[in-house]
Amino acid sequence: MTASAARLVMPAICWDDADGYAPARAAVDDALALGVGGFILFGGERAAARRLVEDLRAAAPHPLLIASDLERGAGQQLAGLTPLPPLRALAALGADAVAEAAAITAAEARDIGINWVFAPVCDLDIEAANPIVQTRSFGADAFEVGDLAARWIARCQAAGVLACAKHFPGHGRTVADSHATLPVVEAGHELNRDLTPFRRAVAADVATVMTAHVAYPRWDQSGAPATYSRSIVTGLLRRDLFFGGLVVTDALIMDGARAQGGEAAGAAAVIQAGGDILLYPREPRVAAGGLADLDVTGPLRRLDAALGRTAPPAPLADAAVATHRERGRALARQAVQVLQGDVRALRGAAAVEIVDDDAGGPYPLPPRTAFAEALARAGVALRPDGERIVLLFADVKGWKGRAGLSADSRRRLGALLERPATVVAFGHPRRVADVPGDGPVLCAWSGDTLMQEAAAHRLVSGTG
User: Which of 28, 154, 292, 430 has a 20 to 30 A CA-CA distance from 445?
Assistant: First the structure.
């Protein structure tokens, strides 16, 4: 392996709530010594993340790609920056809201020094049993999704931050989660519909595309995940869709990416398929070692071309971030919608009960108190004899392996709704089908603090 080949490896840096980035320091130093081409950031606080990125850039012998999953704004990962509603909620507000969200995201990414955002999702929301796409998608209509993705891409990249169309060639039809297994999509000619948003993204000059750890026998009879499939990456994406930009894998720690022969063989298979960047391998040195005997001239050329499209860090004034956060709150309030019944403004006290279908996973959850705290700040007394409100947390979680509610959640929800109550569903609008009866149901899209507060505002004010 030449030292330059290691630039195609992109490890992760994860925030620890107790010790910040310190626990990752040894691995980061080893990755820098290896000569990696960048990092993906998971979590952090604004000031600490900015210092980290400054240190990384100063220590590296070449320019770095610094990426993060910011589908719901920079606040999705970084405390102190702006959280935004999910893409499905933004789509319901229209193209202008999508473009504004992209602009806010890109500006705050540059505030940290992030120059690559792993968004937008171009998968279609067409499979009710899909456990991992749902509200992360712009919707079910392929042409509308493509148009909204193009708007998001244009606004993000105009700010000097690379966008990423994902997960090629489409994760929308899966009924399994590629975090936990290798999904197989058996569909035939209808898969061409799934390509439409990616065609539109390429036409919009998207800088990067992320592959799916999903098998598509119609396009590759070997059963290989798209990430390792030359038929899909070189044949479909590069030749048929004319994409000449940077191709990045989805995280290689995911079970859907497990390669026969191990991580070194998998890394080689990515490059041989036509891919470029090895994202989040378990062992960066092992992954880099898999490139030892390969010609990586093309991937390195595409990497340098992508870097040439990025702008330098641009710290924002605190006042600008405050303005962004207010706009995020406004979009969230507008996105809350009535799915069923007559939702009236609260009059007097409220009694809040919770069905948390998102509990029990390996990752910390947003606090479940934000809704009640927002009611209290608005002057609503919280008492057992108040108007009954049931909060249903049913968000997209990679560990669940399902789209709908667990049996325990269904039982608890049914028991709570034996008496009248207003239900606030923090999940996809189709969760209304899980709510017994015909009582009032609000959709608030996701269970984070932003959407809890937006739902409380809707119930207090009676309007969006």
Answer: 154
The one catalytic residue in 220, 250, 276, 434 is 250
**Is 250 a known active-site residue?**
yes
Contact in structure between 244 and 238 (CB atoms under 8 Å): yes
Q: What pTM value is reported for the model?
A: 0.97
Cβ-contact 300, 7 below 8 angstroms? yes
- Which residues 6+ apart lie within 8 Å of 5 measured at CB? 288, 291, 292, 294, 296, 300
Element (H, E) at 306: helix 297-307
Q: How deeply is 104 buried, as exposed, middle or buried, from its count of CB atoms within 10 A (0-12, 13-18, 19+)?
A: buried
Please give the domain boundaries of the chain with CATH numbers for all domains.
3-307 (3.20.20.300), 336-461 (3.40.50.1700)
Handedness of CA 141, 143, 149, 152 (dihedral sign): negative
Q: What residue has token string 């998971």?
A: 42
445: left (phi over 0), alpha (psi -120 to 50) or beta: left
Write out the two tokens for 453.
Answer: 């507060």
Q: What is the pLDDT of residues 203-225, one digit of tens each?
A: 999 999 999 999 999 999 999 99
The token pair at 101 is 């969200």
| Contact between 73 and 82 (Cβ < 8 Å) | yes
Of 46, 47, 41, the closest CA to residue 28 belongs to: 41
Q: What is the pLDDT confidence band of residue 1, given thresholds at 50, 70 and 90?
A: low
Distance CA 2, CA 296 (A): 9
Catalytic: 448? no
Q: What is the DSSP letter of 429?
A: G
